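ingest -> validate -> predict -> emit
validate: passed (alphabet ok, no gaps, 151 aa)
predict: started
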Amino acid sequence: MITRLIGLVRRRTAVSGAKDRGSMSLFFALSALAILMVLGLLVDGGGALNAANRATSLAQEAARTAGQQLNTAQAVEGTAITVDPDAAAGAARDYLAARNVDGDVAITDGGQTLNITVHDAYHTFFAQLLGKSTINVTGTAHAHLHTQAGG
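emit:
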C-alpha cells in the first residue's frame, strides 16, 4: 500500500515538473532591474544632496569664522569696520582644513565682503556599477559686513 502511494507521488511530481522548468519571466527581470535603478538613484542622489548641503554649511561657517577677524586698528579708531584680509582668509582656510575639505576664499570691497566656496565629493554606492564613483559638489557662502563705524 505504501509503495503504491510513493509511486503515485513520484509520477505526479515527474509529470508536473515537466511543465514548469523554473524559468524567470522577462517581466520580473525588468521589474527588478527598474527597482534597483530607482533605489540607486534615491541612495546616490540623496547622498549627493546631503554632501552639497554639508559643503554649503561648511562654507557658511568658514565665512562666519572669517568675519570675526576684524581690523582692530580701524575699529578702535572708529574709521571703519572691516576684516583684516590676511587674518580672515587664514581663519577660513584653517577652518576648512580642519574639516578636510578644499575651498576658495575671496575678500573684496576693502574687507567688507567675504566669499567662500567649498569643493567636496560624494562617493557613490550604486553609480559605481555604471563607472561613476564620485559626484563632485560645491557649496558657497557670501557674507557682507553691514556695520558702519559711528552709525
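The chain has a mean pLDDT of 84.
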